[in-house]
Amino acid sequence: MHTPTSLEAFEHKEAIEMHSFNPAISLTRGLPQGIDADILLLGVKDVRDILYTVYANNGFPERKIDITVSRDITLYTILLDNDETVSFDRIWDLYYNLYIASTDLDYYESHVTKLITLSSSPSSWQAGPYASTIRFCDEASLKLLNKVWRDAVQISVNRKSSQEWFQKGLQEANAQPNPWKGARRVGWRSLAPLYSRTAGKMLLELTEQHWGTGRSFPRSDDDTSELFPNPSFGVAIRRPSLLTYPTDPLLSFHLAAAIARLHDGSPLKLDDRDGEDNHQKRMYEVARLQFKEWIEAFRLARDKVTLRFEVADCFAFCYTLRHADETGERCAHWYRARVGVEPLVLGEEYGSDGTAPKKFDVVDTATRSDQAGILNLLVAAKPLLKDAPSSTLYTDTAHAIQDMGKYEELLLGRTTTLSTLLGLYPITGLTASKPLNAVDEILTAWQDPAPTPQEGQPEAVGTEEKKESATHKSYGFRLAWKLADRMVWHGQDLPGSLEVKEDDLLVLANKLYFDLFEYPHKVNQLPEEAEQVAHLKKGKRMQYHAGSFAAILTALCKHTQVDPYSLVSKLETRINGYWATVAGLYENNVQQLLAEFLLTMPAEVRQTPINRPSWMGLYSWKDVPPVVAVTIAIPWEHWSAVMNRTRIGDLAVMNGYVAFPHKDKVIEKRVYCDIQIAFGEPVTQGKPDEDDFAIAIDEQNDQEAKCPMIVTFNALTEDFRSDGYVGFRCKRTRHNTDGSEEETQNRFYEYRVPIISPNVHVSKFRPGQTGHKINETHLQGWAARATALETPSPDASFPVTFDDKSENITMLTGHLSITSDKGKELLAAKVPIVLQQFDPFTINIAFGKAKIKKDLILPLTFPAPVTKEGSKTRIARTSGYIEIDAPMVKTMEPVLDDYILPTTLYKQPSTDSITPVTLNTPHINLDTLPILALDDKSRIRFLTTLTSLTFSSRDRQLREEIRRAQDAKKQLDTPPPARLNIKESLFTMFMLASGLQGGQTGLFTLTHPKRGGNHMLFLVSAIRLDPAHGSVVLDAAVLPVTTDLISEHRIDEFLVTLRAVESCTLTVDDAELEAWKKMLPALAERCRTWEHDREKCEYIKTGNVPISLKDGDPVLCSCGMGKLPEGFSPLPLWDDGPSKYATRIAISPVYATALVEKVVDPLLTVEGLQREERKKAKQKREWEEEEERKEKEAKGEKDKDGDVEMAEAGEEDDFDYPSTITEDDEEYKRIRCWNCGKMEGEDGVTLKRCLRCLEARYCSSQCQKKDWKKHKMECEEADVYHQEEQQQQAQPQPQQSS
């Protein structure tokens, strides 16, 4: 397979996670509305993701949705039946509860019996009632499901006898280490954005209850009916497997609506007659309400939804799909699973005339990247993406908290370089922001107690550093990868390809190889340089082997115009030269690398002839291939030792090898990691000395059969010698042990036999296959073009410059030939040329002296993000071209400052229509989101914390610098970045729209005093929860104040009425105004319920989005103007005119991404605050003790033990700390100055309280005066004054704190 095979691949106890933890998300959230969506789910996704996707598309322009999935088919068939006699309660119980009533079990048995008949053959399924919606990618998947259904019926039939083993299986699962692993963190996701410790604890109690009782909510006292095991879970347990994670259904719903106080008429609002205090019951009711609405949406959309089911290894499926897309052949000679020798053969729908999708808008790998490796997935799945800016490949990975901001570590320490060479970028790496909140999750992970070792297990092995790393806290990180050459609109043409020198790529490939493979191969000593490579030691799973590395090399060569055969030949020389210098090491995996390329290398390219062994049957073959298949049958008495987990461990890596005596009388091993395992008896077909000799396996899946274990792998023909051996081994490496020599050497299993042995078979192809596995070199077509690589024209290629020390890309060179008569004329006239840049991919070459209107502007679009800062320009006025050496963009560089929520354009091939596409802004259906009630401020104070978390650690430092400069009345060296100002404006909008700070208004004007005054009006209709993205959203309308509106007096009367309406003016500078205009299209597109008019849309006419950045020009197209819900605003005269020119938008807080910066200031966590308090208290205590000692010494006294009882530093009071602490939280205000932020005790400071409200605290009267302008908006007389009937002055005065 494509990753190293480990013991867990065929260990009989599998880990089964029946339901997803993560709350449902819309799988189409990044796709333009109204365009049909093809979605491939390579990772495990819950049924709720599919149901919620259909639900979230309600109200949007119509689209068809085709999803390839691998689970929950029984539930879909029940939903499609739409049987009125089947209650919602029954559906809920069948899908979620571990134990169900006898009547439910009777229905389940009857329904599944029907499914068994329908799934008896592909033709019978096609003739059934579900075939129009549910299809199978191949016949084997249908057969497997038929077997699962048969097992389920047997459990139902034997329901009483199933009780004992089912209960035992649950107990065994519950006894596993960390049974609640991840539940706390996902509890935050389910409750977002209203997570609290109390609610989180309640949710975990429900999870524990479900796991313990098998029911999602306690039964009523009068319900005494007998319960039986749910066969859906029983099949998983009896395979045998383990339910290793909680299956509480509430963890995957959006539960914030159960806690929030919602507006009357809001979606998902519950009946409050039962009270709002029973949060557990309300969580249960909200989950059921959502599930019911999602089911109804799915049933209504059944004609527009297609679900395709496939059960296969994700890499096997990817490469088989790619092969089918290129050739029409439905088999790529991959095994369908990690264990077994059944080839993956797709159904007829995937043939050359088939209608099944082979290219996708979305490929979601879920958490597979942690097991399979991000690079492996990017290389295998990227070619499955449609050629569109909306096409997205999603990965979910676990990141250590301490790695926040380490962007380059994502891809082996070379994220920028490898992303550029692969043509695939994580979009948030460029935008450094997104309207999705994960900051609370990171804070929750930060504050979680460190994991404790299980009973009988050591805490850690080795140094203190290793002990510390064992308790490192992590958080889940979801990345959206985009096609680099589609992230900016190019009109008809795409930018050219990268041009890389072979020697430069060779150096990079050499470095990548040793980063991946040097570390685990050195079993006797750990090289110092490998100690520094942090990314090699983070996980306990090896994700790459030489075969998958060959695929990575081939993909890099494709995008760089380098011949892979020449490259790998030179790389082999380097690698062999290195291993030859390592004393005592006679293992090498470079043969695996060569084998992958030799499978497709043309004979005329091959530099050396194939060595034909003279002593084996293959000597008589007419055609001796460079690569042959080796099959070893290991007797049961030998391989059974592998199953001893206490000796080997479930992550022991397996590989095969060919070995022979070395000249130094030691055994030299040629290691092959791409192996396949099966169990059964080998069956030969033909004679070994004939070309058509083949091997088949009579597979035995019965654990008690005690049959041989079959190991098969490809090996170089030249490795076979008459005195050689072949073997199989299972060992641990430093990747998956504590790294000690004893661990790596002792935990080891090996089976070795002579090559000439009855247990060894050599054939052209592996068992059950009729050809070699189609790998990356086949699919990239190098065999046909390796000898005829053309030199691209200068305009079609971009030479790449590497840094000599880091082997990373530092610069791209763009070439632009001036072909127009006007351009040639301007060149000849030596007109000045300047560079302009408005996005990270395009540098505009502007001719002319005028600052505003240029004579000619020519865009030069690069295939990767670059910056004009530090660039070099070469102008060939005679030859007629311009070249720019542009440095690669680094994260958070100025050119990315307003690249916050970008939008681009896309021309659909099928219709030739042009559509705007948001790159990092998820689409939402505003009308389905809950509306917050704003009358009770105590119920919405979470908005202050939630929106303030948009400010990253870097932002907070910048804010502090700005404040200090303002206090000192100094001019900043550089103006505040637009990104920070945007966040400040958004924070203000949320605080004033909610009424939490400084009054309440829903009307905002965006004003630039030096550029004509008001540029935009924002009218907020409601604040809605956006639980799928952990955030909130302003349901608003924007009215851009254009020259036409003003000159034609269309809204004059409305503007006059606004003078009497309370509003907020957001004053902006040039950079922030431009950033707002660039963001607006994304804010409108994300909630669009209308379609663009192909004839009138200004985006299509101009080819620009936004339309223009000039003052007075329109920003948004007119397609969405006036399309607002009825009764959107109560403002006077709104419906009479202004609403016709306004567009509905969805405004969310913009959060930093932990991929590129630290999103959390440690002092804003409970842990950080308590640590800071303890530090200050300790310093104060030490100072007091020192003063006391000096005083006693002066008096001639001596200390006496036990005279003074000293409290522990930082001893906590009874304050109930919130989960996150910001400048606006009560605890923060209690211990810090409200103006400068100094803490109580810092520099000897004693805080004083405002005499009027007794709440505000200041370190000095100067700070109080500075803060008065802000504080007077919220300063109210304390209740104590009214009780004692005392009167005080209106102007507050400082008073000593008690």
What this model shows, in words?
The strands form twelve sheets. Strands 6-9-4-3-12-13-16-14 form an eight-stranded mixed beta sheet, sandwiched between helices. Strands 1, 18, 20, 21, 25 and 26 form a six-stranded mixed beta sheet that branches. Strands 17-28-29-34-33 form a five-stranded mixed beta sheet, with helices on one face. It has 1298 residues and is of the alpha+beta class. A hairpin with a 4-residue loop joins strand 33 and strand 34. Helix 20 packs antiparallel against helix 22 and helix 23 runs antiparallel to helix 24. The longest helix is centred in the C-terminal third of the chain and has 30 residues. The protein is globular and about 95 Å long. The chain is 32% helix and 19% strand. The protein has 41 helices and 45 strands.
Relevant terms:
disordered C terminus, alpha+beta, six-stranded mixed beta sheet, 1298 residues, eight-stranded mixed beta sheet, 19% strand, globular
Write the layout of secondary structure elements.
Layout: E1 5-6, E2 14-16, E3 37-41, H1 47-56, E4 65-69, H2 73-81, H3 88-96, E5 99-101, H4 102-118, H5 122-126, E6 134-136, H6 139-157, H7 162-174, H8 183-191, H9 197-213, E7 227-229, H10 231-238, E8 241-243, H11 256-259, H12 279-300, E9 305-309, H13 314-327, E10 331-335, E11 343-345, E12 362-364, H14 368-372, H15 374-381, E13 392-400, H16 415-422, E14 424-426, H17 427-431, E15 433-434, H18 439-447, H19 464-470, E16 474-483, E17 497-499, H20 502-521, H21 528-531, H22 546-560, H23 564-580, E18 587-588, H24 590-598, E19 627-634, H25 636-639, H26 645-648, E20 653-661, E21 667-672, E22 675-685, E23 694-699, E24 709-716, E25 725-731, H27 741-746, E26 748-754, E27 760-763, H28 776-779, H29 782-785, E28 797-802, E29 809-817, H30 821-828, E30 833-839, E31 842-847, E32 856-861, E33 872-876, E34 881-887, E35 903-907, E36 914-918, H31 942-948, H32 953-967, H33 978-994, E37 1003-1008, E38 1013-1026, E39 1031-1040, H34 1043-1047, H35 1052-1057, E40 1064-1067, H36 1070-1085, H37 1098-1102, E41 1143-1147, E42 1151-1152, H38 1166-1195, ...
Parallel strand pairs: 2-8, 3-4, 3-12, 4-9, 6-9, 12-13, 17-28, 18-21, 37-40
Antiparallel strand pairs: 1-20, 5-7, 10-11, 13-16, 14-16, 15-42, 19-24, 19-27, 20-21, 20-25, 22-23, 22-24, 25-26, 28-29, 29-34, 30-31, 31-32, 33-34, 35-36, 37-38, 38-39, 39-41, 43-44, 43-45
Helix pairs in contact: 1-12, 4-6, 6-10, 8-9, 8-18, 15-22, 20-22, 20-23, 22-24, 23-24, 31-33, 33-36
GO cellular component, one term: nucleus
Domain MYND-type: 1233-1275
Protein name: MYND-type domain-containing protein
